[in-house]
Each structure stands twice: as C-alpha cells, then as structure tokens.
Amino acid sequence: MGIIIGGSKNGLTIKEANHLQVVSMAINNSCNLKCKHCYLQSTQKQNPVLREDEWMSLAESLFTYSAPSTIAFVGKEPLLNYQSANLVSNIIKLRNTIQRSTHNRTSIGLLTNGMSLLQFSDILLANPPDYIDISVDGLPTEHDFLRGKGTFSKLKPNLRWATENFPGPLWLTPTLNGNNIDSFLDMIHYYNYHFKIRRFAFGFYIPRNNRNDDLSILPGQIEKLVNGDLYKLAELPIYEPIEILFDLYPNHPDSLRSFIDSGWAYSSGGIESSVYDFSNGVSMKIHATKVAVGLRYSVRITPEGHWLAAEDAIRMNEYKKLTVANVRDFHYDATELYETGLNSARFYKLCRKNKSKLQKTPVLKE
Ligand code: SF4
Fold first, then answer.
1. Structure confidence by residue, pLDDT tens digits, 178-225
2. Which atom from ligand 1 is nearest to the alpha carbon of 31?
3. Residue 33 CB less than 6 A away from ligand 1
4. Three-class DSSP labels, 26-78
5. Is the CB–ligand 1 distance for residue 34 below 6 Å?
6. Quick check: 359 pLDDT over 80?
7. Which end of the chain is more exposed for a tag (fewer CB within 10 A), N or C?
C-alpha cells in the first residue's frame, strides 16, 4: 500500500505536462488477504460497483482520447476471481485494438498481492499486462507478520512462476514500515538471490488518520536508511542486475524531507529524478514529487466509479466527499471527467496545499 500513485508505473516519471498520465483502476472491493496495513478498508456504505460493460466504456474513452502513459489495475485484488482477471484481460485486448501502433500506447500494469498468479496464469499469458507489481512486504517473517501466517509459503510458488514465465518486467513493491525498514538491504539480497528479482519499487507506510501506530517509521529508522543503507547498496553482493525505485510524495513528508536533506533527492523543482548507478550493478532512481499530482497528472477510479485525485486513494472513508465526479454521470467520457477534475474545488485545494512555483493555482470556473 505504500506506492499508492499507480504502483511502480514500471519506472515511469510523471512529467509536469498538462495531460493525464497515470490512471489507477480499483476494479473490486475484495481481497483474499487481510493485511494489518491495508488502507482499503471502509466502514462506509459504498455505491453499487461498476459493471464490466461500464469499465469497458470508460477504458475505450481513455484509450481513444486521453491515452494516458499508464493504466494500473489495483484491485483491492485484481486477481481475486475469474471475473476481475477477465476484466483486466479484456481491457488489455481493447487497448491492443484501439492503440495498434506503439506510438503513444498506454502501458498497462497489474498490482497484485501475487497469491493467485498461478491460478490465472493462462489468462495472464494470453493477454499479458506490460508489467506486474507484486506487493511483497519484506523478508518472509515480516511478510507473514503483516499479511497473515503462512502467506509467504503460499506466495512462493506464485512468485517462482512469475519470475520464470512472465514475459514483461516484474517489480516487487514493498511498503517500508517500522517493522521491516531495518531489513531493507537483506530484503533486496534475499529476493535477488532466491527469486532472481531484479526490480524493487519501495513506498513508505502512511499511518492511518496520520496518527502514529505500531507500524509507523521512527525518525531514526529513516535516518539509518538514507545515511547508511543507501550507501551500502554500492557494496551489496548481487546475483542479477538490480533496479531500485523510490517514488517520494508530499503525503509522506518525513521520507521526502530526509531524502532531500541527505542529498539523495533534489530540493528544487516540482518533480525531479535522480539516478545513481553503482559499479556492482545496482541502479537506484529517486523520483521526488513536491507538487500535487492528483486530477492533473494522476487519477484513481474506484470500484463505484468515483473519479478521485491519486492522493485521495488512501482516504477510503471519505471517497464520497472527495470525489469530483462519478463516471456514470459523465457517460464514461474520460475527457469530460478530466476537465471536471481540473475545474473542481478539490483540485484547487490540492494545489494550494502543495503550492509550488512550478504549479500555478488554477482559477475556479463558476
Ligand atoms: S493485499 Fe492489498 S488490498 Fe489485500 S488486504 Fe493486503 S493491503 Fe489490502
């Protein structure tokens, strides 16, 4: 749950250009796990979820007119059952038909907990997404602590299948939290050695209601990461070349500040990337975003059809208040939905909150 703005996006950096770049589609409200750190838990009654034909209409509009750089399927769990696995597959087929040429083609990713990769292997191989993110949460014991006892042993054959059979890039997307952040280097080493994992996209745990809880990262732990472990990456024994990605956003200010203060990330600009290539074959990219990305560059569509700023994805109990539109009310027209988002009070507020010289505060239309 750490990388909320569309998963790894296969390493894509959001650009400060005025068009929609990342759409994360939450296609269901159910999961086969019950993780301690899950932010997709609502106590509110939700609207009816979108039917498959409604998702297809929305996807058709997105592929035809908006052509975002990335669409990421995020579930709760997109490989929960045949219905959601088939929906992903059908949207990939639709993309292949509408965007035949490779120019401006929308990349499609799947963010899964990995528990059912084997079960849906035929579907995944028939119409493969461009990349898969698997939300592993640390070494096996740490993973089980967060995701439930015995989870890792069930994940293992799925992970093995994916590394040996999936044709596209495979990313592990651990959420660093107070329980696993001290194992950062061991985690990379373990998955690289035992599973030949070459790509890791790290996010940071955001405490619910922004209050500290027992998974919160302590200031000293982030200090150890940025002033110790990141330097040790250059000496890490590796078995396959490794790509590491940190996507930093203002919604986790401690990590953004620590990466800037320690010199790993730029302090200037709205969105900046730094790349460090170490001689042992480890490459680390740091994307530091200091402006609001929601509604202008990145949106979340919920199972009920809410069009939300990406930053609001973790506030599930407030979706009804935070939504700027429902896709049903706009006949699944992504262009109109996008315009509505840019002219919404929510966008205005997000820009004010993350005010930057590079991101002008919009003028609201009446
Ligand atoms: S796998 Fe993801 S969606 Fe499912 S319970 Fe865990 S954090 Fe939540």
1. 999 999 999 999 999 999 999 999 999 988 765 568 899 999 999 999
2. 4
3. yes
4. CCCCCCCCCCCCCCCCCCCCCCCCCCHHHHHHHHHHHHHHHCCCEEEECCCCC
5. yes
6. no
7. C
